[in-house]
Amino acid sequence: MKKIFTLLVLFATALTASAQLSFTMDGNTIENGATITSSKVDPSFAEFGSVMFKPYVFVSSEKAGNVTVEVKALDGRSVGLCFGGNCISGKNLSKTKDMTAGESVDIELDGGGMMVKGTQTYKCEVTAYYTSDRSSTISFTIIMTNDPTVLAVGSVEAENDGVMFDGRTMSYTFAAAAPRTVSLYTVSGKQVAQWNVDAAVGTLSLDNLKNGTYVYAVKGAGTNISGKVVLK
Asked: What radius of gyration do the chain's Cα atoms show?
């Protein structure tokens, strides 16, 4: 009986140790260390010609515990964070919250304001970790912008490190070769192209597509990433 109890304790400890934090945006997992872009704004500010970026970024916890979220402005511009209650703003932010196992919470990141108008770009690093265990740290960089030159193909990294653009060539790099599907849609949701790829590294030509804004999605073999590109 004592041996069984010991095994159960060890098993429970192993499960707790493997519990992780994760970030998602628009339902898609953000890979640790990735650079993503978002052009989403708060429509209530847009009515007045103002710019308030409002990406929907969530942090999820596999176990119960106190979680710290930190935001560091990489361009010296103040941003906002509302994780865990009261909202704060500045260039180096930190908030904590007790989370339950399986809980997912909107960190309510924002950039801009009523007096901010025109073309804008904010860049910051977002980090999360269990407050009692810094080894659980995950992070990503987000670029919030409405600048078409920043959103344009080849100007910035795509929403995941596995996809890059150079002119009208889409390049992909994955950890291992496996069947995946790469799809391209108009912003209205109409599919305009689809490729089935198996290699870990490759390129796809976008020469047949008209100028405009498109949404790409890569799925399969544990990959689920998406982003927006502008073809000129």
From this structure: 20
Structural contact between residues 99 and 64, judged by C-beta atoms closer than 8 angstroms: yes
User: Collapsing DSSP states into helix, strand and coil, what is residue 25?
Assistant: strand
- Read off the tokens for 25: 């945006």
For 144-175, write each residue's pLDDT tens digit.
Answer: 988 876 665 433 333 334 677 778 888 888 77
Bridge-based pairing state of the strands 223-231 and 212-220: antiparallel
What the chain holds in terms of domains, given with CATH numbers, is 20-147 (2.60.40), 152-232 (2.60.40.3080)
Give CA–CA dist 124/39, Å, rounded. Answer: 14
Both tokens assigned to 195: 């490729």
Distance CA 125, CA 89 (A): 14
DSSP three-state, residue 196:
strand
- What is the Cα–Cα distance from 157 to 138, expressed in whole angstroms? 19
Nearest Cα neighbor of 180 from 164, 205, 201, 166 is 201
Shortest CA distance to 33 belongs to which of 146, 204, 159, 206?
Answer: 159
Q: What is the pLDDT of residues 203-213, one digit of tens each?
A: 999 999 998 88
